[in-house]
């Protein structure tokens, strides 16, 4: 009788062998790597991050990396992550890949889009990427060894195969060295950020849980410091303080008064450009003094000026709150003497009088900035009275130096011209101006109406700066007084008693609260001459209460039984 060799169980030799038998974890780590399935990496993916690249660079063997990923890897490891061999920055070649209107990578000559089955090559001297059909037909067959875009010379050795659909060994992710070894692709900063339990959490929006998270982080750091034998015990308290970027960002420093509502843009620039140093803070932009003052409703101090004419004086009130740019322009031009000896070139009865043009033609004049400035039409000001002073323009946002003064309400000009002042004195002079006749067939006054000068009585912007400076100095003085413990009034109560730093009344008398009079009475008896010799018995103070008479009769309580 023969012996059967097929057993109903797996023997030890079968379980431990690696020659074809596969039973659970019998192959081990080295054996499991021998039969990894084929995984193709797309041509437009970085071989390190396994994500689409935006700044492609390649090696001589055609492996493409993203510059933002390969540079930190080379700093940390100094090897090619795919092959494991040593690699330097100089071995990387920057690729210039072209896209069509749909955002797809394509051949720059034939404009055929690249697909996973396209044979793609790059020229090492220029970095331009073409389809193999284009290079083969227009360069190799034609014996034209010049780049089709840049006309640089190259040789067959300079051709780098990016993707060959007939040979996919270079695109097989199962053979990548760093994937086989399980090497992390994160930088030291990224690993530290992932280890931080507060990373990615907005502590400002976390409410009371932010304190709990910060406390847990502090406990973990203190525990790690205590378990470290090389840790200086004197630094344990300092180490326990949670030093992370999220917590420090939550404790914002006070913004300056001229901070803009938008940021400097450094964080966005450092994210999208490799030439800009890394910047992660969203710093607010700082406005210039002029931009800060010319924000609407920032300066609500009214200005006052006098327009001196050959017919008399016009006193005007400047509406700084709603038209800061127009008021600023008028004041600066007046202070420069720009309006001196300029004529009102247009005068229409029952409508308005216009001036402010040094040329006297109505086609000249410029603002204090040298260019036109935009309209300011958001306020409640309207052309609803006589003596309204507005900016003249040639269309939208074309304000310069010319202005006009109305003779009556003109509602059809509302939201078309910037109102920046009104006449508050000299309306009789305005009547004289309206009565001046015009030359026949024109709007020009027959008799010259001349602006001799514009005198600024109250400059609202200077007043605002002076007021801000005084408030800032007062704030600094208050802080200095607070550091010294406050003024004498802050250190004493209204009764004249001095206050201690903790806010309690300083004095030898008994403190307030429950039982304060009892303590005072005890202290008086201690200081007095009378002494208690002995305690009086309680009977002297309390008489025994009289017994109630028991009502007799009936059965009673059977005491006599």
Descriptive report:
Keywords: Isomerase, Nucleus, Rotamase, Transferase, Ubl conjugation pathway. With 561 residues, this protein is α+β, with helices and mostly antiparallel strands. It has 17 helices and 19 strands. Among the domains are: 7-36, no CATH class; 56-181, no CATH class; 259-287, no CATH class; 303-464, Cyclophilin-like (Cyclophilin, Beta Barrel), CATH 2.40.100. The protein has helices at residues 12-16, 28-32, 67-76, 132-140, 177-181, 188-195, 209-227, 236-239, 245-250, 266-272, 289-293, 324-336, 427-435, 460-483, 488-491, 516-527, 538-541, and strands spanning 56-58, 64-66, 93-94, 98-99, 105-106, 120-123, 129-131, 159-163, 259-263, 284-286, 303-309, 313-318, 342-343, 346-348, 352-355, 388-391, 403-406, 419-425, 450-458. The protein has a 9-stranded antiparallel sheet with strand order 13-19-11-12-18-16-17-15-14.
């Amino acid at each position: 009788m023969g012996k059967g060799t097929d057993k109903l169980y797996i023997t030890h030799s079968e379980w431990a062998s690696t020659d074809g038998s596969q039973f659970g974890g019998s192959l081990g780590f080295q054996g499991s790597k021998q039969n990894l399935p084929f995984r193709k990496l797309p041509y437009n993916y970085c071989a390190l991050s396994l994500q689409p690249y935006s700044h492609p660079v390649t090696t001589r063997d055609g492996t493409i990396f993203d510059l933002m990923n390969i540079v930190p890897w080379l700093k940390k490891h100094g090897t090619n992550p795919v092959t494991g061999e040593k690699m330097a920055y100089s071995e990387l070649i920057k690729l210039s890949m072209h896209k069509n209107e749909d955002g797809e990578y394509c051949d720059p000559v034939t404009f055929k889009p690249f697909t996973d089955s396209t044979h793609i090559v790059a020229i090492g001297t220029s970095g331009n990427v073409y389809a193999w059909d284009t290079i083969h037909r227009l360069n190799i067959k034609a014996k034209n060894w010049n780049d089709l875009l840049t006309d640089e010379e190259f040789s067959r050795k300079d051709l780098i195969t990016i993707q060959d659909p007939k040979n996919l060994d270079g695109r097989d992710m199962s053979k990548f060295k760093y994937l086989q070894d399980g090497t992390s692709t994160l930088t030291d900063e990224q690993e530290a950020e992932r280890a931080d339990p507060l990373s990615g959490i907005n502590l400002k929006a976390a409410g009371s849980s932010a304190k709990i998270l910060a406390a847990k982080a502090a406990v973990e750091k203190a525990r790690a410091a205590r378990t470290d034998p090389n840790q200086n015990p004197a630094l344990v308290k300092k180490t326990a303080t949670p030093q992370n970027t999220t917590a420090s960002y939550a404790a914002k420093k006070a913004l300056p008064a001229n901070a803009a509502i938008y940021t400097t843009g450094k964080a966005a620039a450092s994210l999208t450009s490799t030439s800009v140093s890394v910047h992660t803070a969203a710093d607010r932009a700082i406005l210039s003094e002029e931009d800060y003052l010319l924000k609407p409703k920032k300066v609500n101090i009214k200005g006052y000026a006098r327009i001196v004419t050959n017919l008399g004086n016009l006193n005007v009130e400047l509406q700084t709150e709603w038209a800061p740019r127009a008021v600023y322009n008028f004041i600066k031009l007046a202070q420069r003497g720009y309006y001196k000896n300029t004529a009102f070139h247009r005068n229409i009865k029952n409508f308005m009088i216009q001036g402010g043009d040094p040329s006297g033609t109505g086609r000249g004049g410029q603002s204090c900035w040298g260019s036109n400035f935009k309209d300011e039409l958001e306020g409640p000001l309207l052309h609803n009275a006589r003596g309204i002073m507005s900016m003249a323009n040639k269309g939208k946002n074309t304000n310069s130096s010319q202005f006009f003064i109305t003779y009556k309400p003109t509602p059809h000009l509302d939201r078309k011209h910037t109102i920046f002042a009104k006449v508050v004195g000299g309306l009789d002079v305005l009547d004289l101006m309206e009565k001046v006749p015009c030359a026949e067939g024109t709007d020009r006054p027959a008799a010259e109406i001349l602006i001799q000068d514009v005198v600024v009585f109250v400059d609202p912007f200077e007043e605002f700066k002076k007021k801000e400076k005084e408030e800032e100095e007062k704030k600094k003085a208050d802080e200095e007084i607070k550091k010294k413990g406050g003024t004498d009034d802050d250190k004493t109560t209204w009764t004249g008693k001095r206050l201690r730093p903790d806010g309690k009344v300083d004095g030898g008398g008994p403190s307030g609260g429950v039982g304060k009079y009892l303590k005072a009475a005890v202290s008086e008896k201690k200081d007095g001459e009378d002494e208690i010799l002995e305690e009086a018995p309680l009977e002297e103070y309390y008489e025994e209460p009289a017994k109630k008479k028991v009502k007799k009769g009936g059965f009673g309580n059977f005491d006599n039984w």
